[in-house]
Design a protein that fits this description.
By secondary structure, the protein is α/β, with parallel strands linked by helices. Helices cover 39% and strands 20% of the residues. The chain starts with a helix and ends with a helix.
């Protein structure tokens, strides 16, 4: 194509429609260099496009520092969104006022550029609504910047972006972490103009097992994108809507041009393992270490077929009904195969007893489980008695724990280290499960681990194999 004007128009049109194209083209406006199109940028841009299209409404992005998370999400995306919709209302939050003001200034510089005004002529900045913390448009939209802990009275939003909610040097302060989470829980969800359509993006480097991202992973319901500096397992990431994926193999460096293997090894020595694993590998190590190691676990892409599955077994760890501070009731569903146990599903909730009883039967039927193991404690005692009323069920196995949680878990580590535990490459419930498993015994909750340990110890149960053979 020889006509430069026509070529420019094509590129401008692509930047209007596709966020990745916009982010690459806009980068030299904010920074005096071209953007290195690393694969993780494609992955983040794909997620942002899904957020814009309404496919995702709650997104958590965990990535090492200085990998352009702020540019892509807090700067480029907010500018692009106001270009697409000048009436959009955006609230951007970071841990400190200086940080929020810098991000706001970079966004304003981009929106004032001749290139931006050319591709989005309908977005006009309101000169009366420009400050260190606000970028307003004549259509009533804005990008409002504030800090964690600040009040948002009178401010409504279509989307809220929380970028670096906690200072790295405050990560080990329980008070700082708790204040951040409390502010998020009490303030953020009340700011939406339309709660049903409101969107939230939290983007951060992991700093501690009990930081805000850890809290959100534990809570569940978030589209979670975790990008470690060194990939601990084979992982597929979508890069184009419709089915194009990037495969990161175990040991892959996130961006070798920025941090190669030698540099990361030196960085780990300088930072210490605890801070390095949190900030760069997005896997906080609890004080004192953990019992189960990520490297021990084997992974599967597809569930084992019927010809391989010897039995489906469910393991229940029950708790009394309660509020958000109480333990969960958990059911893990496993396929017992010749090469180990494959985790198929995790169900976790705080049900009333009547709902719990129904759920036991529902999950058993759904997965065609041959054995259901229930720990004989808390509500499990009543559950066992209710199920066995009148006619004891051969498929129901109940166990009374004889040792402490940690000792029971340590006894089963050899099976995991030998590769007998299989987890899926991806599942909606997987981030919360892995966070608890690899942080045990220092995680806030341990119900999923209790259920897992109970299953792993199943082969030690009296008459376990005989009962399985009979039911087959």
């Amino acid at each position: 194509m020889s006509d430069p004007v026509e070529l420019r128009n094509i590129v401008d049109g692509l930047c209007r429609q596709d966020f990745r194209s916009f982010a690459i083209r806009a980068f030299p406006v904010v920074e005096p260099k071209m953007l290195d199109p690393a694969r993780h940028i494609d992955i983040i841009c794909c997620l942002i496009q899904k957020i814009f299209e309404g496919i995702v409404s709650r997104a958590l992005v965990c990535i090492p520092p200085r990998y352009l998370k702020t540019y892509l999400i807090s700067i480029a995306y907010t500018a692009w969104l106001l270009g697409k919709n000048p009436a959009a209302r955006i609230i951007c939050v970071s841990y400190g006022a200086q940080l929020t003001e810098k991000f706001s200034a970079d966004t304003l510089r981009l929106m004032r550029s001749p290139w931006y005004r050319r591709i989005f002529p309908g977005t006009i900045l309101d000169p009366k609504k420009q400050s260190l913390t606000e970028i307003g448009t004549t259509a009533g939209g804005y990008r409002f910047a504030t800090s964690i802990g600040a009040t948002l009275t009178g401010r409504g939003a279509d989307i809220i972006i929380i970028d670096d909610p906690l200072k790295a040097n405050e990560a080990h302060s329980p008070t700082a972490r708790e204040n951040c989470i409390e502010w998020f829980n009490s303030t953020v969800h009340t700011r939406f103009d339309d709660p049903k359509k409101g969107k939230i993006i939290v983007v951060a480097q992991r700093l501690h097992a009990e930081d805000l991202p850890g809290h959100l992973i534990e809570t569940g319901g978030w589209d979670t994108l975790i990008l470690p500096a060194i990939n601990p397992k084979d992982q597929k990431y979508p890069i184009v809507a419709g089915g194009l994926w990037a495969l990161f193999r175990t040991g892959r460096i996130l961006q070798p041009a920025r941090h190669d293997e030698k540099y990361l090894a030196q960085l780990k020595k300088e930072m210490g393992e605890h801070d390095f694993e949190a900030q760069f590998n997005q896997c906080p190590i609890p004080p004192g270490g953990a019992i189960f190691k990520n490297s021990w676990v084997r992974r599967y892409d597809k569930r084992p077929g019927p010809e391989k599955v010897e039995a489906v077994i469910q393991s229940w760890d029950t708790a009394y009904e309660g509020d958000g501070t109480n333990s969960y009731t958990v059911c893990t569903t496993w396929a017992k195969c010749p090469d180990g146990y494959y985790l198929l599903d995790v169900w976790r909730d705080r049900p009333a007893f009547s709902a719990l009883l129904k759920q036991v039967y529902a999950l058993k039927q759904q997965w065609k489980a041959k054995l259901v193991i229930v720990e004989r404690k808390a509500s499990g005692i009543s559950l066992i008695e209710e199920i066995n009323k009148g006619d004891p069920k051969l498929w129901l196995v109940h166990r009374t724990p004889e040792k402490g949680k940690i000792e029971r878990a340590q006894q089963q580590t050899v099976k995991v280290e030998q590769g007998q535990m299989w987890l899926p490459v991806e599942a909606d419930w997987l981030p919360a499960y892995e966070a608890e498993l690899f942080q045990f015994p220092h995680a806030k909750f341990d119900d999923q681990v209790d259920s897992t340990v109970q299953l792993l110890s199943a082969s030690d149960f009296e008459n376990f194999h005989q009962r399985l053979k009979y039911l087959s």
